[in-house]
Amino acid sequence: MSSPLPMLLQEKATACQKCGECCRKYYISVLPDELEREAKFFKLSQEKFIQIYCQLFLQVMPLQQGDHPLAIHSSAIPKKIWSVLQKNGISSNYVMLLPMLGFKKKEFCVFFDPKLYLCTMHTVKPAQCSIFPFMAGEKNVDFAKAYDFCELASIASPTRYTHAQADLQKVKMARYFDSVAKKGMENVWSALPQEGIIIYQGKSISPITRSELLELLQLAREKETN
């Protein structure tokens, strides 16, 4: 019996209402295959696209156990960064490191035009954007309440398409982080920005440099080999 996924992916997603709130509230991350598509859209090399539009994102999550290859013990985190994490309420034994590339942002995502209230790369935007606000994928979520700022959430519900896409995105994200853990971030991307931010609970809490991020990931890998 053939898989229903191709049929589901042909269903139309509910139309974005173009309010721009998600482009303002969130830091938008991107996966390697998405970035390749977006660079082609702007007729740029991936390296040039990254240089112009991207920054490093390091999302951190407190953990009590360090089984995951991207988890690092608090004692191994450089004092400068650990101090920032502590000031923001992290006191766990371990911290999960989730390194990504994402789009630069001031008030809005760099690709959002606040005058026209349009995404300038709408047709090739990342899954994080195209599925929003239905990324969770779980049933029985009150999206209108959870995302009360989003006009789409107040008038629509997730479809079979968005559920399928959300599930697919979870698989792609898991594979991406596995690849980073095994190969190193510098070997997953064609280039890396020199600067970025540490993100905790959806907020930027500190700048971070490329060398600082790679050092953290190296320390996490050393835990795996010891």
Task: Summarize the helices and strands and which ones pair or pack.
Blueprint: H1 5-10, H2 21-25, E1 29-30, H3 32-41, H4 46-53, E2 54-63, E3 71-73, H5 79-87, E4 94-103, E5 112-113, E6 118-119, H6 127-131, H7 143-146, H8 151-155, H9 160-183, E7 195-200, E8 203-209, H10 210-225
Question: What is the structure about, briefly put?
Answer:
With 226 residues, the chain is α+β, with helices and mostly antiparallel strands.
Structure description:
- The chain has ten helices and eight strands.
- It is an alpha+beta fold and 226 residues long.
- The chain has one domain (14-225).
- The strands form two sheets. Strands 1, 2, 3, 4, 7 and 8 form a six-stranded mixed sheet that branches. A two-stranded antiparallel ribbon has the order 5-6.
- α3 (32-41) packs across α4 (46-53).
- The longest helix is centred in the last third of the chain and has 24 residues, at 160-183.
- It is globular.
Quickly give the structural class.
Answer: alpha+beta
Task: Count the beta strands.
Answer: 8
When the domains are counted, the total is 1
Radius of gyration: 18 Å
Tally of DSSP helical segments: 10
The stretches of 5 or more residues where confidence is low (pLDDT under 50) are 1-13
Average pLDDT taken over every residue: 88
- Beta-strand share of residues: 15-25%
Q: Element order, helices and strands?
A: HHEHHEEHEEEHHHHEEH
Please give the share of residues in helix. Answer: 40-55%
Please state the overall shape, judged from the principal axes of the Cα atoms: globular
Report the major sheet: 6 strands, mixed
Quote the distance from N terminus to C terminus: 47 Å
Organism: Candidatus Iainarchaeum sp
Protein name: YkgJ family cysteine cluster protein
InterPro entries: Puta_zinc/iron-chelating_dom
